[in-house]
Amino acid sequence: MKNKYLLFAAYSSFLAAFLHLGCIIFGAPWYRFFGAGEHMAKMAEAGKLEPTLTTLVIASALSVWGIFALSGAGVVRRLPFLRTVIFMVALVFIGRGVAFPFIMPLFPENSFTFWLVSSLICLSIGMSYALGGWQLHKQQTNS
Question: Which UniProt keywords apply (predicted)?
């Protein structure tokens, strides 16, 4: 039986990684739309390397997390430290989702709507990792 929570988490992580790569390809307007902040958008417009490198690191992390979610869902082979990684990723996403009031002042140009929507998305993905990790834990305990 496939772990539907981790499948959702994987697809969500891959979609987020893909959108981050879109920021690299389409530049400043995408950085602005997706809330990277005016500073990142202006650096992208100026042809600086920092936005590209930062975004590549984030896209890479999201992709690796997606692969771990696929592993937990039973789609790809079992990876080492699977449950630990799944729960750590859940904490990262949930942490981002609930910490937005503290992060908002760092990006004053982003609207409250942006923070609310992006935080709800992060919470949803984080809960998918957490619930999928719990399901994985129960399956392994009962085996």
Answer: Membrane, Transmembrane, Transmembrane helix
